[in-house]
């Protein structure tokens, strides 16, 4: 297992991240934080740890530079700048494609809050690289027209007691053209403060990723069988 702090350089920023990958990883889960959160998010780190036990690599990345984070702490404007956050995620997807330990490995985008909108936008821009999108109590509605352009399967996980966010996710799900599912965790609140509720998020995310990889493997096997018959 490789675990290291990384600096992801792109055209407009250098972003700090924590990368953990196994050899080989089934996929790399790239976390898109939102609403003033960062790679130190306790909830996302908990989910990341659970996914690693299932053979997935993880990249927890600050989507804002240190200077931007200080500005956002005062004005709270960058956290709602979906084009900026999506641009940073696309840059991170491209960065993963260039690294020796993650080159050729599918990417799963895991979004929370406004990070969900950024994840969906980035998935629409990199359909060939994104295996799936998972959202925890996110704001998919803020992705705008990108919702209809997403090709990767999307899982929306929402707390049953988070009524307004649940409604927004239901509305967004109706606009998605890609395969999708809405998973409601009963009695969970917006922050998923109950560890049992957060464990359900991790389990649902793992199942979603497992199913996507299984579907790809089955399709590849069918193609090999067809090729064999042609010969």
TrEMBL record:
It comes from the Bacteria. Residues 22-208 form the Dienelactone hydrolase domain. Pfam families: DLH. SUPFAM superfamilies: alpha/beta-Hydrolases. The keyword Hydrolase applies. Gene3D superfamilies: alpha/beta hydrolase (3.40.50.1820). Transmembrane segments: none annotated. InterPro entries: AB_hydrolase_fold (IPR029058), Dienelactn_hydro (IPR002925), FrsA_esterase (IPR050261). The keyword Hydrolase applies. One of its GO terms (molecular function) is hydrolase activity. Keywords: Hydrolase. PANTHER family: DIENELACTONE HYDROLASE DOMAIN-CONTAINING PROTEIN, DIENELACTONE HYDROLASE DOMAIN-CONTAINING PROTEIN-RELATED. Belongs to the AB hydrolase superfamily. This is Hydrolase.
């Amino acid at each position: 297992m490789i675990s290291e702090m990384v600096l992801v350089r792109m055209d407009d920023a250098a972003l700090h991240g924590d990368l953990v990958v196994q050899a080989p990883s089934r996929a790399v889960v790239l976390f898109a934080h939102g609403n003033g959160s960062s790679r130190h998010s306790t909830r996302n780190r908990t989910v990341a740890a659970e996914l690693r036990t299932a053979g997935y690599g993880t990249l927890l990345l600050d989507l804002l530079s240190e200077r931007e984070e200080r500005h956002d702490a005062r004005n709270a404007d960058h956290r709602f700048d979906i084009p900026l956050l999506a641009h940073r995620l696309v840059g991170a997807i491209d960065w993963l494609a260039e690294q020796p330990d993650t080159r050729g490995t599918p990417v799963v985008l895991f979004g929370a809050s406004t990070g969900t909108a950024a994840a969906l936008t980035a998935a629409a821009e990199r359909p060939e690289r994104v295996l799936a999108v998972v959202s925890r109590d996110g704001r998919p509605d803020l992705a705008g027209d990108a919702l209809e352009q997403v090709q990767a399967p999307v899982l929306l996980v929402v707390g049953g007691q988070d009524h307004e966010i649940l409604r927004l996710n239901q509305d967004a799900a109706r606009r998605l053209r890609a395969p999708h599912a809405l998973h409601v965790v009963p009695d969970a609140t917006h922050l998923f403060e109950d560890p049992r509720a957060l464990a359900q998020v991790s389990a649902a995310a793992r199942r979603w990723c497992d199913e996507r990889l299984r579907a790809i493997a089955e399709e590849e096997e069918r193609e090999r069988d067809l090729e064999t018959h042609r010969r």
